[in-house]
Amino acid sequence: MRTPIILALMAAVAAPTIAQAQSLGEARQSQREVREERRELRDAQRYGSRGDIREERRELRSAQREARQDWRDYRRSHRDVYRRPAYVGPRGYAYRPINPGYRFAPTYYSSRYVIADPWRYRLPAASGPNRWVRYGNDVVLVNIRTGRVIEVHNSFFW
Hints:
By secondary structure, this protein is mainly alpha-helical. It has helices spanning 2-47, 50-77; strands at residues 130-135, 138-143, 149-153.
């Protein structure tokens, strides 16, 4: 009687782990496909006809759509990673939606708001003077020398 119960418990514990690995693998594979499609589009722009370019653009859009869907599935299955405590902004803070090019005051990208481990959230590495910063429930890539916003991911945190 013990053996079937133990086997059932092991299966219940192993199944979610396998599903998580599969979704992460799918997300990585989708990103590889996007990079490959970009390469093929570049080659078509250099050496192909208009029809080839049009077809490669369609394939690139399709690959990007699939990568976004895999990313959403990954986030849905790992909600606990993207659930953070309430955001407390600098003094006088009032949330406003922002776009690339917006200029932040230095208090908004101080060490308190910088995301120290972007890999945890599957964000690309910030290079040079750029830093990933939490702004409300958004994640923003900011150039800390100028305060300019480079990239915005709205509603990133739950």
